[in-house]
Amino acid sequence: MSSFGWLDQEYALYKEKDTIIHRLDPRVKFIWLIVLGIVIIIYKDPIWMILFSIPAFGLVSWMAKLSWDDYKPLALPVASICILAFFINQWLFFRHENFLFNLIPDLGFIGPAIPVSLESLTHALNIITRIPLLMGPVRVYIGTTNMKDMASAFTKMKLPPEVAMSIAIAMGYLPVLLAQLRAVMESQMARGYSWVKSKNPIVTLKQFTPLIIPLVLRSLIRAEFLAAAMVCRGFEYDPKNRTYLKEIKLERNDKIMLVLVFSALGFSIFAYVMGWPRYQNLTLPLFKKFFGLE
Description:
The protein is mainly alpha-helical. It has one domain (5-291). The protein has twelve helices and two strands; from the N terminus they run ααααββαααααααα. It has a two-stranded antiparallel ribbon. A hairpin with an 8-residue loop joins β1 (99-104) and β2 (113-117). α6 packs antiparallel against α7 (161-171). The protein is flat and about 70 Å long. It starts with 19 loop residues before the first helix and ends with a helix.
């Protein structure tokens, strides 16, 4: 049996578990997601972001019983984005006061270029800290909310049912797409196609060329079957007034979670107004002390 590398892994975005986070109202989890995103964006200090995220994100993830394996598929793209953001930030930053070194040293034919200072390093850390702290809560939300509850929650939030269902289907389609890709690869291998592991992204991309057309055709056929199934279940008949077998409603734990979320938001806004979560007030002075630049 052939190995397809990372395609051999099973990516089930939603994890069926009986935890307090899974039982929360999807609307409450969505509000938690939005509030956490707002706080991460308005905070300008990486230490404040991390300290806020330990209870707000880390504790929730632990209560949802999500492990490293659930976040592993995000590790490589998030790390790539962080590295790219770091270099772009160093290249564009211009307020250098405490110079440290050049990313490109003097090589004779090029350099020195792209200076790195304590200010640019702190600012870059402030930017790249946001990326995993914004992606992680999205993974928690998708991993603890099934498609039916998600569609019902978006509809309850006055989102058009067609849009709500489209979002829910899109979020649950990744495992199906990867399963179809594996099936297409196995079919093509029976016809003489060979999959060669390579670290070269161009070689890997070329190997996907004979897979694109069958994969697109399968996806279109599956979309037609899905549309027919939805029509047979009466989705097009008065979607604005449709009912659900399981009506979501706020329970005691949902109300407690809302109180905690809005309390955290209130404190974060107060801290922002007071100017506490700014890297000039905490992270930068700590870096200056660490590098002996005071």
